[in-house]
């Protein structure tokens, strides 16, 4: 499943770059491509990188990927990976000001032993997927740098296996959970490529 998601996301980005690269600069001189990282995710030891590509005067597509491979002392972990594409509509011009977004996401996780997340006694391993809407704002900091704040809400379906929290803990049960609430939050630093 992971390969299919990555292949589809890559094909979409390839088509968008090919479409935008040759046509966009002829009629509009706003930034076309930016690379970004979310400072809030780094605070949770989560590696993350994203790219945003201009589609039209007021539209972009944003693709974020996150990865957390770490285990901490006493087998504590928040291991996961996630991919989150988002279509954005800008109220003024792309890469500047307010925007609204429609995003989807898919990821896999293996988490346990973290008291503040309610995972002290159990370990959960599984997948999550869903969609939501987002609002955000970008500020131009300089010729090549922007700062972005964004928040999103939506729906997620979580499918998991539950284990007793300990090394090689016994399997307890399989479960699912439907979630409605925040689905993204970010303070992103963006480097404008062109």
Give your account of this protein's structure.
The chain has 194 residues and is an alpha+beta fold. It has a single domain, classed as Porin. 16% of the residues lie in helices and 60% in strands. It has two helices and eight strands; from the N terminus they run H-E-H-E-E-E-E-E-E-E. Strands 1-2-3-4-5-6-7-8 form an eight-stranded antiparallel barrel. Strand 3 and strand 4 form a beta hairpin. The radius of gyration is 19 Å and the shape is elongated. The two termini are 33 Å apart. Mean pLDDT is 87; it is low at 20-27. InterPro entries: Autotransporte_beta_dom_sf, DUF3575. Pfam families: DUF3575 (PF12099).
CATH domain fold name: Porin
The separation of the N and C termini measures 33 Å
Taking all Cα atoms into account, the compactness measure Rg is 19 Å
What is the name of the CATH class? Mainly Beta
Q: How are strands sequenced across the largest beta sheet?
A: 1-2-3-4-5-6-7-8
The amount of helix comes to: 10-25%
Compute the average pLDDT: 87
Number of individual domains = 1
Protein name: DUF3575 domain-containing protein
Pfam families: DUF3575
Organism: Butyricimonas faecihominis
Q: Quick summary of this structure?
A:
The protein has 194 residues and is an alpha+beta fold. Helix content is 16%, strand content 60%.
């Amino acid at each position: 499943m992971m390969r299919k998601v990555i292949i589809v996301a890559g094909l979409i980005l390839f088509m968008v770059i090919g479409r935008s690269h040759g046509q966009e600069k002829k009629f509009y001189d706003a930034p076309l491509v930016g690379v970004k990282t979310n400072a809030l995710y780094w605070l949770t030891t989560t590696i993350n990188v994203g790219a945003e590509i201009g589609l039209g005067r007021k539209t972009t597509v944003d693709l974020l990927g996150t990865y957390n491979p770490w285990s901490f002392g006493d087998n504590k972990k928040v291991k996961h990976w996630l991919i989150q594409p988002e279509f954005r509509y800008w109220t003024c011009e792309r890469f500047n000001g307010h925007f609204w977004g429609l995003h989807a996401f898919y990821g896999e996780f293996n988490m346990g032993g973290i008291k503040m997340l309610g995972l002290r006694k159990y370990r959960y391993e599984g997948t999550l997927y869903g969609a939501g809407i987002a609002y955000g704002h970008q500020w131009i900091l300089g010729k090549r740098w922007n700062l972005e704040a964004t928040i999103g809400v939506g729906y997620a379906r979580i499918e998991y296996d539950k284990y007793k929290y300990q090394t090689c803990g016994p399997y307890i049960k399989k479960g699912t959970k439907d979630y409605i609430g925040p689905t993204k939050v970010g303070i992103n630093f963006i480097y404008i490529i062109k």
